[in-house]
Write a structure and sequence with these properties.
The termini are far apart. With 290 residues, the chain is mainly α. Helices cover 74% and strands 4% of the residues. The protein is globular, with a radius of gyration of 19 Å. It is built from twelve helices and four strands; from the N terminus they run H-H-H-H-E-H-E-E-H-H-H-H-E-H-H-H. The strands form two sheets. It has a two-stranded antiparallel sheet with strand order 1-4. Helix 1 packs antiparallel against helix 9 and helix 7 crosses helix 9 (185-210). The model is unreliable at 286-290 (pLDDT under 50). It has one domain (2-222).
Amino acid sequence: MTELLLQALYSGLLQGGSYALIALGLALVFGTMRVINLAHGELVLLAAYIAYTVEAGLGWSPVAAIPVALVLVSLSSAGVYGIVSRIRHDREINSLILTFGIGVILTNLILLVWKADVRSTSSSWLQEAFVMGPFYSMRSEIIFFGVSLLLMAALWWWLARSWQGRALRAVASNRDAAALMGIAPARTELLSFVVAGMLAAFAGVALYSYGVIQPVYGGALTIKAFIITVLAGIGSIPGVLLGAVLLGVAEAMTVTLASSALQDLAGMGLFLLVLFVLPNGLLGASARRG
């Protein structure tokens, strides 16, 4: 029983890393613009289907699709911003409705192009078992867990040290004051959407490499990303990792000790518990950086 619980914790940790990768882009846009991009899950899914197309059409590894996914998903994300930026009043609620509609459109476009069949990678190298002591996982899970950590560290450094990152934080803090200091808010917000698209591209390729994909999964990905973003606290990149790991472990332990049918319920229960105890999230405003 002990070995089973340890394996569940290990699996939950790896799952949390993948959840963090999915949530990073949504957390960045939400922290910068206070806009919840409900089409984010569909952008992740778009990258996953690009990886499928590269593998099925060219016979290459899904990892080789990352450059193509980066370009196409970033452009799609910039297109979403181009539409959202036209909102002049009640931006928060109107952008919520608008991005939900964009997500529905993207889901149907994916359905038209790639059909409703369940897809998964055929790469034996990515699916091969990786054994580390008593723990088992797929090689792709280990690889993209490391990628997730590297991207989070890079994003944290970029937000804290680079001029563009400081501009993003300035716009997030006070848009009008940032404009008075010579920062172009619209250009800065566009940059946040492009970076979010790049993160979504990595997340989508990772998702296809270790799991299965279907057009209807976009909404579920957005919900998980939103839960993690709120758990983290607005503006907290380390909080995204902590919230994602907690969610992954909670789901893995629920599947191991109870039933897979309760997996999503466990995530929502954790979400409500943290909000009740820590309304500002796990790493709220007082502890955030970037």
